Amino acid sequence: MGATAExxxxxxxxxGFGEYCWQDLLRDIAEWVGGSKAMLLGMPGGGxxxxxxxxxxxxxxxxxxxxxxxxxxxxxxxxxxxxxxxxP
Length: 88
What we know:
about 90 residues; 4 helices
């Protein structure tokens, strides 16, 4: 059986304090929503989003995203609407 929403929230907090592995957290969240991959995007210096952490993604595809597609990603702007510190 997978994690509960409460467990995910606890793991999210623990990952923020370095007490839980980020890749494991991404796996847990992906599995919780029925997915098979997860990626955490960052926006360094206000530039385009870039892959910060991932679970189960193809490295070549990530490099393609970071080197080109990220500038045209129609979903990345929506991530700016998510308030900080929101975990499942």
